[in-house]
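Appendix B. Extra example for self-study. Work through it before the problem class; the solution is given directly after the inputs so you can check yourself.
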Amino acid sequence: MDHDFKAVQQRVRRYWFKDGIGEIVVGGLFLLLALYFAGHRFLPADTNAPLMLDGSLALLLIFGIYFTRRLINVFKTHITYPRTGFVEYYPEAKDTLQTRVFIFFLVAGFVLLLVVFGRWVGTFVWLPGFIGFLSSVILIVIRTRAIELNRFYYLAAASIILGLICSFSGLPAHYSLSLFYALFGLVLIILGVIVLAKYLRDNPLPAEGEDE
Amino acid sequence: MSENLRSVTDLDRLIHEPARLLISTILSGVVSADFIFLQRETGLTKGNLSAHLSKLEEAGYVKIEKTFKGKLPLTVCKLTASGHKALAKYRQQLQDFMKKTS
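Solution. Structure tokens for the complete assembly:
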């Protein structure tokens, strides 16, 4: 009986992933990261351009933390809620300014740690493999929380495989990282578009005034 | 009738009705959900869902708000504190009953 209660609540939680919009937005963010890492190879080192590019990474991190979920919600408001209804979930953690600042510094500190470690071992070629592994852990956690969404297993496997391929590609670190984000971003977007297309086909817009 | 079996008569009948139990369970896991979502998840007709929601609202278990999300009209339903309490009590009573009788 208790299992049935939990199954209903799990199904409601899974609803957030039903439309594939999350994958499309995160995939877009990964493509921006790919552009950032590729940009370092093309910009002339004797100008302010690399510095501006570093600044854009900070903006990208802030965008990722602050606006990804909001952007997803904007799309959901126009695509998902009119078709299959609106659900407001409990926040994962207390969503205060302190929490956001803490997350920002945590991410910035983690990136700094990776840079220091890379300089210490003298190479960054392992980074795509590491990021691929990290992404797969996050995806498996999502899969565990939102049961029966096996596409997250496939994404986790793709992130590990792409990470390893990019790490052993023999490309310079910036290129291989850029390649990883570009490929994984594309995989996310393609999967998201497939899921969204199926969702739109299965759930046409209801007639006007269906809401009670 | 044994005392064990008699305890089932103490169940909250308002929550015990299958449709209302499903509505309450869905709402217990989220801050709020709208009418369209509840209709799709429960498989009830509009009239049936409205009637069950009205009963839950009258009992103070559910709060219903007519609002907007962007330009879209929304009928948003939330399980109130007393609704959460009643559902938790119902689950506990049912679990106790199952343990006693199994």
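Self-check: The CA atoms of residues 139 and 155 of chain A lie 7 Å apart. If your reasoning did not lead you there, revisit section 3.
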